[in-house]
Specification:
The complex is a heterotrimer. By secondary structure, chain B is α+β, with helices and mostly antiparallel strands. Chain B has helices spanning about 25-30, 90-95, 105-120, 125-130, 140-150, and strands at about 5-10, 15-20, 50-55, 55-60, 75. In chain B, helix 2 (about 90-95) packs antiparallel against helix 5. The radius of gyration of chain B is 15 Å and the shape is globular. The chains are: A alpha+beta, B alpha+beta, C alpha+beta.
């Protein structure tokens, strides 16, 4: 199908605002007499507050309020940005207080102050006297699981948050029937999102006695619900406003500082209070990526077919549940669309420890499990002397696959073409031949990895997206969505969709990028690779409705059946001849001001999406390994994606670049480190946490296989998270190819490489 | 004793104000003068989001005392577009799709502006080095490099 | 807002020295990239700052008639890395300077501050050690010149007497003329990082094939920057060969006092010292007019 706007490199709708510095983020609103909130954080990973004395603080000039755990609601709440579940067994764990008397990680919030400025607030924190009873910190899941250990949360026996898993088919039989069995362990690290804008909000009570919170969030509506629950307030008394967001990557899919910020303004009679995390706080008291340990047992037939997979997973949740067991379960679900299995057993455990709380991060568990699976695919291929690519292709799922647990069907699948394209892009065969017999201290190698992902959360969770469209008096269009722009480019894609459907130039669409829970249509927010697929469907639906209303309106004015009319370039035309009937501007003027027919044309719709579309892709990487120093450089890297039809190639490529770059960090550079005795963070800043710089990232090649997904708007599927998923295993497999050394633990730092190369006798 | 009067120009506009010597240039620009295009990403010179040009040279305004700006010429992102026209660098960032969340954008555009105004030629490696004081988590830096190359074309 | 109790600006060196005598609590600030971050992270509180930023006499790079190269303590890393005098006479120092932090930091951070900070990881230090740099220190009573090696006393500790200011870094012609050198900053990232190991190797050759002199300065190989004396003595008069280089690398490790931290293990650091000393020196040989070592 030929489109006018879909598939074009339309300029970002927020580009000018952002490039001129006019775009406002949560920290950019300067209220008069804004107060500053600061948090007193526990220096211990596990401790009870025995005594807390704030009397000295209250005497400090400039301090407006002091809050401790005594001032917060007793009922615990969940911070997780999931839509509520009507099923009581499927709800998020309520294990958190706004301020706590039991510190569960270094940095846990014990008390808070509100003062006239930051310096005063900082000085005030020093005057709070706390007496702690220090408890033994539990810093690894293995430690936390041991008998007789303390409990991070009293109600969770052996610190097991959950160990619900699943089984498909008869795994015992499948393994028994296999010709070969392989069993290996793989481990990933704790990493941080490192969005450039730290977590920041400000809150005040407005003239209607509403608590207004302007905040950097991915989930305004869910945050409203969580704040109301945390404070025991009616939902309607809380109003969340989301301006531009300086990156989220999943971290802002939780209620983070907002409940405390609300409490702070209430404590000072509703005056505006700003609560901004500095980088160090942002890296410990937001969320992290779950570190997983996998033990994966795979049965393979003589023909190289995978028969069954038995996976044990240990997920480190840190001090609080946040997204809880959902992340490991998502990992256990989304990998199934890639390869065919007769049987799968997935036995995960999510464990509480005394480390910062883990939560959502781009990929939501899938980069972790894909690391295990795709490393193991190469390990198996090596042992069986199979070509790693042929081995994968032989086992791929294809169109027609119906997942036995979710019921999700593959209607479009471009994995094979992605692999073909990737092979060509990196000159796989030529280079493989060239690098066959290398000696010396610098060695090159090639590796690849595939993945499957989904577009949204259905059927695990409800998927609704809201859109509102208003035809303005001059024929231009206001577009409001509940889905949040956090940098990924969704507002632009929505504008393209609305323009395409209605039949107007994209620059006549005005997108409201701010979400305001008092005004915006409901949507659960930016996460789960759902925006284009779910919210896009809502936009398409709203636009279709507006178009129908326009044509019906004109048919009344002109006495022509609506079926004869269409809209092109902002003109209502006769379908058969293309002759203009009326300009959209004239239509709109009549819709607003015609004494007889006036009825402004709007639509306000919700799409409830009870489908899902698996998306696929592959990473191809070439590395150069310096055996002597353990340094590994990615020389070339390509990601090829099947995300259905690409709505905007330039923004889509941008998503892939960012995801691949994050994957390179995950593979080689990034990890949050903690003192192994005390649990104190060692590198919670951007100097010691090795976020790659521009000099560390090579040129990233991107391509797409544009399948036509029948369930997605304009044939599209999701693309937000997938680019990050298969990068680390591809790099790891390239290192294996170059050196023969298998790294089963991320990140592959020079220190680790040195140790393994030494072990292998390479140095 | 902590208050001092300073004069400087911001985006060619003369400013004379009494500041607190404890304030960073970042704080004065954002909180006192409303130039919120100057972003704070770390407060410790680690991320580059707060970059402004001082007499044409990029510096991190978060670790630069405001009092040091006395007598200097400051350029922030708000000063680049003239009469509603984007600068060549700004336009290149838009054309090449170098903007995503936009938080690192002001700093990167300013450093690129300094490079363009230097009249020097840069290889791709030199471009990377010049930009290496800016972190970006969204773009993998790919389109940023393209935008800078476009900005530097004669 | 930075937690300052006081801020004073000296216009001249004399004024600064007078102020230091009056108030020994004053902490000197130049570029601010170390001091302000320490204040920001609340490592120091209620600080009384003495700014020496306006003292023009402490800026700039000159080559004296006797061949000495004099770098004012207030000279920024950007200036050093682009200085024609440095690029022509001590290009390794330009190489080391451009490895420091990122451009915005180099535009304000000063070499004097880098040295007085006393960090073993200072990007200027291993190179200045390798060139036998001298430091000129001045107080109210007068000035003294000491070798940089003697200035570093321990981690974060330097031999700065009360009332003293570092004014100049001096490198003498006999220490740089006809030397080739190379600096390797070994860090986890290619920019915005602190060194896991800094290696500066310089050498002078006889007839292109005999080591007349080798000097190796290391950063982060011990509590202070240091020199590999045993390796240097061994090299003197030896033929340039893979075997000599390998032995120099091995001996370089002997000078180090590496330790295990969360950043790297002792074993790995020592391995790096051996490998990178050898690599740095092999480039230095080329630059000193020697042949490529296989």
């Amino acid at each position: 199908m030929a489109y006018n706007v879909i598939g074009k490199n339309v300029q970002r709708v927020d580009a000018i605002e952002k490039v001129t510095g006019k775009a406002k983020y949560a920290g950019d609103f300067l209220e008069r007499d804004m107060l500053v909130g600061k948090i007193l954080r526990s220096p211990y990973a596990h401790a009870l507050v025995k005594k807390i004395d704030v009397s000295k603080v209250k005497a400090l000039p400039g301090v407006e309020a002091v809050l401790t755990y005594k001032d917060v609601p007793e009922k615990p709440f969940s911070t997780c940005g999931h839509p509520y579940s009507l099923d009581p067994h499927h709800r998020d764990i309520e294990d958190r207080h706004i301020l706590t008397n039991k510190a569960r990680f270094v940095g846990d919030a014990i008390a808070a102050v509100v003062a006239i400025d930051e310096l005063t607030a900082q000085k005030a924190l020093k005057l709070i006297e706390v007496e702690y009873e220090v408890l033994e910190p539990l810093l690894t899941p293995e430690e936390a699981l041991k008998d007789g250990k303390l409990l991070v949360h009293e109600q969770f026996d052996r610190n097991i948050l959950s160990d619900v898993g699943y089984q498909i088919g008869d795994i015992e039989q499948a393994l028994a029937e296999s010709d070969y069995i392989f069993e290996d362990e793989y481990e990933t690290s704790i990493v941080h999102h490192c969005h450039l804008e730290t977590n920041v909000s400000y809150a005040y009570v407005d003239s209607n006695n509403r608590i207004v919170i302007v905040t950097s969030t991915q989930i305004p509506f869910l945050t409203r619900r969580l704040v109301a629950l945390a404070l025991g307030l009616p939902t309607g008394r809380v109003r969340i406003i989301k301006p531009y967001v300086g990156g989220g990557f999943g971290n802002k899919q939780d209620a983070l500082q907002e409940p405390l910020n609300a409490l702070m303004t209430l404590a000072v009679g509703g005056r505006p209070v700003k609560l901004e995390y500095n980088r160090e706080e942002c890296m410990i008291d937001t969320r992290t990526r779950y570190a997983f340990k996998y033990r994966s047992k795979v049965g393979i037939s003589k023909e190289g077919k995978i028969i069954g997979r038995d996976i044990f997973a240990l997920a480190n949740s840190g001090a609080y549940a946040s997204h809880g067991h959902a992340i490991v379960m998502c990992a256990g679900h989304l990998f199934r669309y890639l390869y065919n299995y007769q049987a799968i057993k997935f036995k995960p455990k999510t464990i509480y420890t005394n480390l910062p709380a883990a939560g959502a991060m781009r990929g939501y568990g899938v980069p972790q499990i894909t690391f295990a699976i795709e490393c193991q695919m190469d390990d198996i291929a090596r042992k069986l002397h199979l070509d790693p690519i042929e081995f994968r292709i032989k086992n791929l799922n294809d169109v027609g696959y119906v997942d036995p647990l979710s019921g999700v069907t593959i209607y479009s699948c471009g994995t094979r073409q992605c692999i073909e394209k990737g092979k060509k892009l990196i000159s796989w065969d030529e280079k493989k031949a060239k690098y066959q017999n290398q000696s010396g201290t610098r060695r090159r190698g090639l590796g690849m990895a595939c993945f499957s992902f989904l577009s949204g959360t259905y059927p695990s969770s409800v998927e609704v997206g809201g859109a509102r469209i208003i035809l303005n008096e001059d024929g231009s269009v206001q577009l409001q969505i509940g889905a949040t722009e956090i940098g990924q480019g969704s507002d632009t894609v929505f504008a393209q969709m609305a323009a395409e459907v209605i039949g107007v130039p994209v620059d006549t669409i005005y997108v409201t990028s701010t979400q305001d829970t008092d005004i915006s249509p409901y949507d659960s927010g930016a996460y789960a690779t759902r925006q284009t697929y779910v919210a896009g469907t809502a936009v398409k639906k709203a636009a279709t409705e507006v178009k129908e209303k326009i044509l019906t309106f004109v048919s009344k004015l002109k006495d022509v059946p609506p079926s004869m009319l269409d809209i092109r370039e902002s003109n209502v035309i006769f379908k058969h001849s293309g002759e203009a009937v009326m300009s959209l501007g004239d239509v709109a003027l009549h819709a607003y001001y015609d004494k007889q027919h006036a009825a402004p044309i709007t639509s306000d719709t919700t799409a409830n999406i009870r489908m899902n579309a698996p998306c696929f892709g592959a990473t191809f990487a070439e590395v150069e390994v310096d055996l002597e120093t353990g340094k590994i450089e990615v020389v070339e890297i390509y990601n090829v994606h099947d995300s259905g039809r690409i709505i905007n190639r330039q923004t889509a490529e941008g998503q892939v670049h960012g995801g691949v770059s994050m994957g390179i960090g995950y593979a080689l550079y990034e990890q949050m480190l903690f003192d192994s005795k005390t649990g104190k963070p060692l590198n919670n800043n951007l100097l010691d946490y090795k976020l790659p710089t521009i000099m560390d990232i090579p040129a990233i090649g991107v391509d797409f296989v544009e399948t036509e997904e029948p369930t997605g708007p304009f044939g599209s599927k999701g693309l937000g998270e997938p680019p990050t998923v298969s990068v680390a295993p591809a790099i790891r497999n390239a290192i294996l190819d170059a050196t023969g050394v298998a790294f089963n633990q991320l990140p592959i730092t020079p220190q680790r490489a040195f140790e393994k190369f030494k072990q292998a006798g390479l140095i | 004793m902590l208050k001092q009067k300073i004069s400087f120009t911001v985006n060619e506009k003369e400013q004379s104000l009494e500041i607190d010597v404890r304030e960073s240039l970042l704080e004065v620009l954002r909180n006192r003068l409303g130039y919120t295009g100057v972003k704070k990403g770390c407060g410790a010179g680690e991320c580059g989001a707060c970059t402004v040009l001082i007499d044409g040279t990029p510096i991190d305004s978060c670790i630069y005392l405001a009092i040091w700006a006395d007598g200097k010429k400051i350029t922030t992102i708000e000063g680049l577009a003239k009469n509603g026209e984007l600068s060549k660098v700004q336009q290149a960032f838009i054309d090449e799709g170098a903007i995503q969340c936009g938080f690192c954008t002001p700093g990167l555009v300013l450093t690129t502006t300094a490079m363009a105004e230097s009249g020097k030629k840069f290889t791709r490696e030199e471009i990377k080095r010049e930009l290496s004081g800016h972190f970006c988590r969204c773009t993998g830096y790919q389109n940023i490099i393209k935008a800078v190359e476009k900005s530097l074309q004669a | 807002m930075f937690d300052l109790a006081r801020y004073i600006e000296a216009e001249t060196l004399e004024e600064a020295l007078d102020l230091l005598i009056e108030n020994p609590k004053l902490k000197i600030i130049a570029g601010g990239t170390d001091v302000l971050i320490k204040i920001q992270h609340r490592e120091i509180e209620n600080t009384e700052l003495l700014s020496i930023r306006k003292i023009k006499a402490l800026e700039g790079i000159t080559k004296l008639g006797n061949g000495q190269i004099v770098i004012g303590a207030l000279t920024t890393f950007s200036i050093i890395s682009e200085s024609p005098i440095i690029k022509k006479n001590i290009p390794v120092l330009a190489e080391a300077s451009i490895s420091m932090g990122g451009p915005q930091i180099r535009n304000v951070a000063t070499i004097g501050g880098n040295i007085c900070n006393g960090a073993t990881s200072a990007d200027s230090a291993s190179t200045l050690f390798a060139f036998n740099a001298d430091l000129k220190l001045q107080n109210k009573e007068g000035e003294r010149v000491i070798p940089i090696k003697e200035f570093y006393l321990g981690p974060g500790k330097v031999d700065l007497k009360p009332g003293e200011i570092l004014t100049q870094i001096i490198i003498s012609p006999e220490n740089y003329e006809n030397y080739g050198g190379h600096y390797i900053k070994y860090s986890m990232r290619k920019a915005m990082d602190i060194a896991t190991l800094g290696v500066c190797a310089v050498c002078k050759l006889q007839r292109g094939s005999i080591f007349e002199e080798v000097r190796i300065g290391l950063g982060v190989a011990g509590p202070t920057p240091l020199r590999c004396t045993e390796a240097e003595n061994f090299a003197k008069g030896k033929a340039v060969s893979p075997e000599t280089l390998a032995e120099i690398g091995r001996l370089a490790v002997k000078a180090s006092q590496a330790r295990t931290s969360w950043r790297a293990s002792k074993e790995y650091r020592e391995h790096l010292i051996e490998v990178l000393s050898r690599r740095a020196l092999s480039v230095a040989i080329l630059r000193a007019g020697g042949e490529k070592i296989a």
